[in-house]
């Protein structure tokens, strides 16, 4: 295998895309802003039969996927094969606990947002993760310096589209958009050189990438071999997630209506398009292919707390 087709990367996506709908409802898809190549999508927490939203269920859903997110694909496959051979679940359970141990217990952690980014990138956008920072951490309380994950697809023209991931979950939506796109910018706009922000991740992609198929992995690595002409066939793109507080969810003693929440979320998104356009133009990213995922929440702080609780991690300041 010397090149990769659009279908080759789809087989490494983990999980059932329809399961996403249990926890998150798609409100807006492919919103655009003038003079920019961005595509904006909005998901809200799903209303249940009692008219409630449950961030804790969302956090538990994310917890159940941490091994797929944080453990290299070949190790996960080997564990599944061992469990099937011995009619057990011990090998995959061990990897789940190993994955949990890589997450920080700091109360201001952004790792819940990174998990949301992973879930929506793979199961909604169909962009498989090709590099996860969690496997590279040497200390669970230290954050890896680089992108919040790297995702990929192949265009019909045969270009490898490399999506650098960034996520921010704040109370203030304007601040979340500003800081998320500001963090993403260096990975897209800097020229390729040894001191660029993306260089470390590019080196890791050429060395550590694991697509659970030796031929596919070897073909993928050629795109990051500076002696190969395939290295000129890479397009830098972005996938960004912003979570933020929204006051249109039902309170503790209230019953929400899905249609009312969707209407309010659409109005909220209409007010945020200007923030997105302004920041993309200021960061000189208006011509890059960027997928922006927006998730209004009852509480950004509550989401972080629920995620740590679901992982069984102690809250620390």
Topology:
Blueprint: H1 20-23, E1 24-31, E2 39-45, H2 55-63, H3 66-70, H4 73-86, H5 90-101, H6 111-123, E3 129-131, E4 150-154, E5 160-169, H7 173-189, H8 199-207, H9 214-221, E6 234-245, H10 258-282, E7 290-297, H11 300-311
Parallel strand pairs: 2-7, 5-6, 6-7
Antiparallel strand pairs: 1-2, 3-4, 4-5
Helix pairs in contact: 2-11, 4-5, 7-10
What this model shows, in words?
The protein is of the alpha/beta class and 317 residues long. The chain has a domain at 10-53 and 127-300. It contains 11 helices and 7 strands. It has helices spanning 20-23, 55-63, 66-70, 73-86, 90-101, 111-123, 173-189, 199-207, 214-221, 258-282, 300-311, and strands spanning 24-31, 39-45, 129-131, 150-154, 160-169, 234-245, 290-297. A 7-stranded mixed β-sheet has the order 1-2-7-6-5-4-3, sandwiched between helices. Helix 10 links the parallel strand 6 (234-245) and strand 7. Helix 4 packs antiparallel against helix 5 and helix 7 (173-189) packs across helix 10 (258-282). The protein is globular. The termini are far apart. The model has no long low-confidence stretch (mean pLDDT 91).
Please describe the structure with a list of short key phrases separated by commas or semicolons.
317 residues; alpha/beta; seven-stranded mixed β-sheet; 11 helices; 40% helix
Number of E-type strands:
7
How would a crystallographer describe the biggest sheet? 7 strands, mixed
Radius of gyration: 19 Å
Low-confidence sequence ranges: none
Can you give the helix content as a percent range?
40-55%
Tell me what portion of residues adopts beta-strand conformation.
15-25%
| Strand adjacency order, main sheet | 1-2-7-6-5-4-3
**Net shape:** globular
Q: How far apart, in Å, are the first and last alpha carbons?
A: 50 Å
Question: Would you tell me the overall average pLDDT?
Answer: 91
| Helix-strand pattern | HEEHHHHHEEEHHHEHEH
Class derived from helix and strand content: alpha/beta
Number of contiguous helices: 11
Pfam family, one: HamA
Protein name: DUF1837 domain-containing protein
Domain Anti-bacteriophage protein A/HamA C-terminal: 26-311
Organism: Aurantiacibacter zhengii
